[in-house]
Structures are given as structure tokens and as C-alpha cells.
Here is the input.
Amino acid sequence: MTAVLEPTNSFVKSFEKTPGHARPWVNDLRGRGMDVFKQLGFPTTKQEEWRDTNISAIANATWSPAKLVTGQAAFDLSQKYSFGKAAAAELVFINGHFDPHLSAVSNLPKGIKALSLEKAFESDAALLETHLGKYAKIEQHPFAALNTSFVREGAFVHVAKGATCEKPIHLLFLTLPGAETAVSHPRVLVVAEENSECSVVETYAGSDSSVYLTNAVTEIVQGKNSRIDHNKLQQEGNAGYHTALMQVVLEGRSLFVSHSTSIGSKLTRNDLHVFFGGENAEATLNGLVLANGEQHIDNHTLLQHEKAHCPSHELYKHVLDGKATGVFKGKIFVQKDAQKTDSKQTSKSLLLSDTAFMNSQPALEIYADDVKCTHGSTIGPVDENAVFYLISRGLSLAQARHLMTYAFAADITRRIKIAPVRARIEDFMTALHGLPQDLRIADEARHDVALL
Here is the structure.
């Protein structure tokens, strides 16, 4: 257990200076978050859940709240990551603040809302009071407690009963240079009611020229027979830090598909928890990590099976180069009432250098006696025999190694249905090796979530 924070801590000071909210229940939510954060303190490597990720650089820094930046720089960065007409709606946040001038929300179909959290406090107060802060378990996650302390800015997506949306809703969180060691706390709430369907993309990106922290929390609650395809693309700046918790709650016969890609930041910690609260709910978690230099990317997942007849599939792949380090800790938890659970978990890692390091810890905790659960983990270098074969067919060494890693990652990217997300990952990989775009692997014919 870490020590209680001193009153001089920059986050405590910022909290004390934060103006009160017009709605008392929001103030109560914030106060509870800060109380929990003070009690927990920052996690240390002496704690089991954090023993492979040292966040002392975050804990020892003095952070100031990020401020809204406008002008040409904000416009240019938003255009770089925008989906344009490929999105049904695009909400743009600069340094954690919603920018209505860069956003577009007019093409949403009937029954679907996508708006800033601050605006939703006025238009959908009852829904927010019912759901906001009810699912993220802040007592187990200090950074989520910290995020809750500063709840104000963020996004709210509501999909009404029976509503569908063919194009994705894009939530774009960008960080621009401002005050050094600036921090933002994006909050996302997605409520999908019965028989509804939509796709949501969260993109996190920023400048390489400043040190900053993005501390995000996403809560997703799905009603019966609902379907959500969720993509998260983390492409923060090289000096940025990224911490995030996503909590998903599934009712009966609902389907949740997650594609999580981490290719940026100096240090990333992602926690993804899926709670099966109804029978015949299903979840698929796909993850891709592309890290080099001295990046550190840590993914923790939990599939919490509480009800019977709930299948789940999980595949995380890591490509590590240079002195990059990766962590994957995934747990399948099966409660005694969750009979007929069918769950599969796989972690595969490719090390491109002798100095890259991967720590993979898949785990099962089962209290039911009629289940089918498996897990597996592999870590290894590029197959040099295959590389030699490609070189013998006229490719350079760089091209051969690139194609091998590209094919390894394509097992994840080809499952991504949202074309702009898939293209951005492919572009990043080719640019990383300085290779032409015609070396892309195009496979848009199959996107079967059951390929595991």
C-alpha cells in the first residue's frame, strides 16, 4: 500500500482550486474520487498489479491542468487525425477541452446522441446521474479515482433503443504544446440501450515537443441485444504519458468487440475490464502493441464472467524493437454461476532486437465446473529462415523483416472494420521502416471476429 499523499501534491492543489459544479451530485462524485485517490496514493512496483510498470516519473512531477489551445496549430493537428466524412460524428478535444468549431455532430441518425459531457450535464442530466461513475471501480484504480476527481470535460454517447449507426462516432483527444507537464482527464460515457448498434472510436494523439499526461476513463454499458464495435488508437507524442481504464458492462445477449492499438507515448498503462452481467453476452478483445526506442506499454485485461453461456475471445499481439518493454497481464475470471463459459485468451509477442523485453502473464481463475477456458502465450524473434527466403526472392533485409512483422500484426489489423483506423496503423508501420506504401498487405474481405 502506498503512502497517503501530502497536501502539497499538485493534484490535491488543483482539486482545491477547481470550481464547484452546478449539480450537487457531480460535486459528490468528484469529492469521492479525491478521497479515494488520497487514500490509495500513486501505485508503486511493490504492488502486484504494478510491479512491472514504474510510474515514479508521473508521481514525482508537478502537473498543471492543460488549457485549451486554439488557432492554426489546433486546426492542423485535428485535420491530421480527422476521419472526415467517414465518421457519423466527430468530437474534437484539445488538451482535454471540447472544441465545437473543430467538431461535427450534425449527421447522426435518429436516436443517437454524441455530445460533450459538459453539454450533456444540461441536456441529459438524469441519464448521466444514473450511469456516470457507477461502473469504473476507483477503489482498485488510483488513476481512475484521480480522473473522477476532475470530471467535467469528455464525451457522452447515447444510443437509444433500436437505433443503429452505420458510420463510426469518432472521439478525438489531442494534446498540443502548452504548459510543461500539463495533464488532462478525458471522460467517456457510452450508453447503448436494448437492440441498438454502433461503432465508437477513441483516438489519443499529441505533439512530440512537450511532456504531458493523458489520464482517461471510459465507461460503456450495453442493454440486451446491443452491439458495440469499439476502437481505441493510442498515438500519443514520444514524451507523453497515457493511463486509461475502460469498464464495460454487458447485459444478456449483447456483443462487445474491442480493438485496442498502442503505438505512441513514452509510457502507457491500459486497463480493460469486461463484466458479463447477463446470459449469452459475448465479448472479443483484440490488441496490438507496436513499440520501439525506450517505450513501455502495459496492458491489463479482465474478463469477468458472472452469468452462464457467455463466450469470450482475446488476442493481443506485441511487436517490440530497440529497448522497448511490454507487459500483458490478462485474467479470465469465472464465477460459480457462470456455467457453460467458453473463453479463449492468447498473447503473442515478436521481439525485433536483443534488448527488447516482454512480460506476459495470462491467468485463469475458475469457480464453475462446466466451462471451457484456455490461455496461451508465446514470445520469440523473427523467423530468420523466413527472412532468408524473402531475401533470396529479391527483397532487402529491411523489407523482408518489415513484411514478416507486418504479416504478424495483420492478424489483428485485418479484423478492424473501421477503414481510417486500419489505414492509420498500416501507414505507421510502413513509415516506421521507411518503406513505400505499396508494401501494404490489403485484406479487406474478411473481418471475422471469431477468427481466433
In short: Residues 382-452 form one domain.
